């Protein structure tokens, strides 16, 4: 793996869809891992706000002697935010991702971070991750890649593992019940990408590649499922266009 002068993995500009290519499903492989920081910053409105706020939320809800999980940790941005938000040194922080390319790069970022709280990284399917005594769990743009029929079971396991007073941070791309609103929000999202330097070809090709694996749902569907899973309170703490971040809480 190539590294920059700081010792961090080299970060490249996202040009994966800049030339015409055969349609294929989006995969979190090595090519995506290399450009992921640039890709997500230029593709997800509000991402640079959500990450530091995960630290703030974690600070409020992390409990002594508990476990904190970042499920679908990718390169560890939310893992590091959680790490800096945990004030209790007897907490356990676990980052999980099924992509070995992501985990490999994540290990380097974790090692470069000047913080004493250990982080355990696991390369495995989050549907199989054992969860227990959780005070804060993060699914930061992860659930949308889980098959819809498996989402309730995952959230139920998280809710059952969450301690009273604990929290789930769930960030997602959503769709809207109104076709008019859906069209407006989609257009604004595409304008956001254009403002960040993506061409119409890049926008079109990435959308074609990702639409089979990223299945968005309405905000109402997310709320209902979280309550059904066992959370007591569900609130939206952030939204920009068709991207939201939700806080789901267990009562004390």
Automatic annotation (TrEMBL):
Domain Methyltransferase residue range list: 70-166
Claim: Iron is one of the keywords in the record: no
Pfam families linked to this entry: Methyltransf_25 (PF13649)
Signal peptide interval: none
MF terms in GO: carboxyl- or carbamoyltransferase activity; S-adenosyl-L-methionine binding
Gene3D superfamilies on file: Vaccinia Virus protein VP39
Enzyme class, first EC level, given as a word: transferase
Protein name as annotated: Carboxy-S-adenosyl-L-methionine synthase
Organism: Marinobacter nauticus
Lineage: Bacteria, Pseudomonadati, Pseudomonadota, Gammaproteobacteria, Pseudomonadales
């Amino acid at each position: 793996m190539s590294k920059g002068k700081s010792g961090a993995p080299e970060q490249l500009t996202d040009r994966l869809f800049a030339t015409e290519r055969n349609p294929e499903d989006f995969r979190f492989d090595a090519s995506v891992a290399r450009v992921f920081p640039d890709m997500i910053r230029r593709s997800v409105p509000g991402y640079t706000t959500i990450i530091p706020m995960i630290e703030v939320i974690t600070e409020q809800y992390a409990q002594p002697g508990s476990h904190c999980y970042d499920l679908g940790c990718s390169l560890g941005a939310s893992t590091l935010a959680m790490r800096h938000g945990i004030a209790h040194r007897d907490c356990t922080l676990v980052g999980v991702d099924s992509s070995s390319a992501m985990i490999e790069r994540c290990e380097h970022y974790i090692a470069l971070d000047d913080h004493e709280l250990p982080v355990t990284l696991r390369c495995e399917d989050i549907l199989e991750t054992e969860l227990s005594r959780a005070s804060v769990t993060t699914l930061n743009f992860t659930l949308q890649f889980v098959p819809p029929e498996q989402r309730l079971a995952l959230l139920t396991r998280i809710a059952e593992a969450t301690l009273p007073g604990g929290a789930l941070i769930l960030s997602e791309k959503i769709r809207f019940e109104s076709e008019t609103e859906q069209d407006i929000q989609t257009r604004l999202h595409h304008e956001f990408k254009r403002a960040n330097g993506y061409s119409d070809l890049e926008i079109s090709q990435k959308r074609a590649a990702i639409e089979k694996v990223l299945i968005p749902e309405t905000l109402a569907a997310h709320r209902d499922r979280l309550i059904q899973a066992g959370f007591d309170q569900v609130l939206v703490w952030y939204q920009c266009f068709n991207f939201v971040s939700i806080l789901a809480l267990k009562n004390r």
